[in-house]
Amino acid sequence: MTPTEPSNSPATKAGWTDGARDRQDLRRLVDTYASALDRQNPKLFASLFDEDGELVLNPPAGTDRPPLVLAGRDGWARVLSALAPCVVTTHFVGSHTVRLAGDSASGETDCLAHEMYAADADAARLRVRSIRFRDSYRRTTGAWRFTRRELTVDWTEDRVLTPPTGR
Q1: Per-residue pLDDT reduced to its tens digit, 81-139
Q2: Which of 48, 78, 87, 100 has the largest CB neighbor count within 10 A?
Q3: How many other CB atoms are found less than 10 A from the CB of residue 7?
């Protein structure tokens, strides 16, 4: 048993003594977040947050705007509606580090978000964003959920996509 995991936790009872199951469950949570965005699934997306959970969107570096704090189902739905103009999105989840503290945890997740926008018959536009999330989690009723997910875009790249020829 690690100092951060109580002896009566579900992971300990199941024979996992190093928090491995919790880490696996938290990784599944961040992967499901990406999938809910890509599939435009508001019900799944909302289920990933604690009832009073927040999604915080930090402004671009060098601006003096305050962060945008989205809370509750109406707030979280704004994230999905912002991606509605995309033809398709693909979020690749990269590194994911976690610090466990019983039924609470914190962590950081790196992600590359690919957003494809239709332009015209000759080309489409692809925006790639390197995103860093600072996460806070809580386990309630046996499941991990976000209590706070803070998003920072580290860089953005726009590309022109040309459709394949000869098909």
Answers
A1: 888 889 999 999 999 999 999 999 999 999 999 999 987 767 789 999 999 999 999 99
A2: 100
A3: 8
- The answer to pTM > 0.85 is no
Write out pLDDT tens, residues 135-163.
999 999 999 999 999 999 999 999 998 76
DSSP codes joined into one string, 38-107: HTT-HHHHHHTEEEEEEEEEPPPTT--PPPEEEEHHHHHHHHHHHTTT-SEEEEEEEEEEEEEETTEEEE
β-pair partners for 132: 110, 152
DSSP state letter for 37: H
Which residue, among 107, 150, 145, 105, has the nearest Cα to 131 in the 3D structure?
150
